[in-house]
Amino acid sequence: SPGAAPPRAPARALAALREATDACRQCPIGAGATQSVVGEGPAHAPLMLVGEQPGDQEDRSGQPFVGPAGRLLDLALQEAGIDRRAVFVTNAVKHFKYELRGKRRIHKSPGQREIAVCVQWLEQEIALVRPHAFVALGATAARALLGRPTPVLRNRGQWLAREDGRSVLITVHPSALLRLRGADHDAGVRELVRDLARARERA
Ligand code: URA
């Protein structure tokens, strides 16, 4: 109707979300980060990929999965026949948590409380994008999406249900594969590709 407000462009809604996450100090991580990193992808992507938190390069660039883990994820997506531009890629935690060693910023895993506080932003992204299904990359994402601790190795490759009824496929985080060498690394990548291909069927 003529008087109704136009639907807000998701890009604007995401920009607003980003301003809110930038300003968020509900946990201590934000104070040490360069900026927050929110998700990227089409407004109504059928599939949402959720990682842990931005790394060093993501913290500097403001974009999710652009560092070494992102390059491995890109490769695995390609092998699984998924166009990264067609999925929404984000993280459970929006700021980079690290420990300084000299000049180097060493990744630190987010704690339970930090994950619990930050899930409000992830839920806002979910409300904006309304994906059919999710891929949880690692334990932090699984916990954030399902609201309970969910062991990755026991559940990987499986679809679990969220409280809202939507499905979450559990798989490993690409960073875990970066720590493996040789045949273990290759097998890990093949399993990640297999899991992503399974997610593609559902979404
Ligand atoms: N690891 C993540 O979980 N997310 C990123 O964006 C980068 C590395």
From TrEMBL:
The GO biological-process annotations, alphabetized, read as: DNA repair
Describe the location of the Uracil-DNA glycosylase-like domain by residue ranges. Answer: 38-197
Where are its TM segments located? none
In its keyword annotation, does this UniProt entry include Transmembrane? Answer: no
**CDD domains, alphabetized:** UDG-F4_TTUDGA_SPO1dp_like (cd10030)
Give the matching SMART domains.
UDG, UreE_C
Q: State the Gene Ontology terms under molecular function.
A: 4 iron, 4 sulfur cluster binding; deaminated base DNA N-glycosylase activity; metal ion binding
Q: Which InterPro entries match?
A: UDG_Type-4/5, Ura-DNA_glyco_family4, Uracil-DNA_glycosylase-like, Uracil-DNA_glycosylase-like_sf
Going by the entry's taxonomy, the superkingdom of the source organism is recorded as Bacteria
Q: Does the keyword DNA damage apply?
A: yes
Q: What are the record keywords, sorted?
A: 4Fe-4S, DNA damage, DNA repair, Hydrolase, Iron, Iron-sulfur, Metal-binding
Enumerate the NCBIfam families for this protein: UDG_fam4, UDG_fam_dom
What family does the entry list? Belongs to the uracil-DNA glycosylase (UDG) superfamily. Type 4 (UDGa) family.
Protein name as it appears in the record: Type-4 uracil-DNA glycosylase
Lineage, opening ranks: Bacteria, Pseudomonadati, Pseudomonadota, Betaproteobacteria, Burkholderiales
